[in-house]
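Marked as duplicate of an earlier ticket. Keeping the data here for the record.
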Amino acid sequence: MKRAREPIPKSRSSFMLVKCPDCSEERIVFSCATKDVGCRGCGRTLAESRGGRAIMLGQVVKRLD
């Protein structure tokens, strides 16, 4: 499906605030992260890279635009 022509197209990727389900620490993660992102407090994986978009394993609190 072709995207509609826009003067300045919106980006499909964004930064997200992800909350760890174990220790409730929040971390900013890019939606298309190329490496696995872990929690700084407990070490649990918050986002797994899958080539294109990353899979968020933690709770997404909000999308940062």
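See parent ticket for discussion. The mean pLDDT is 89.
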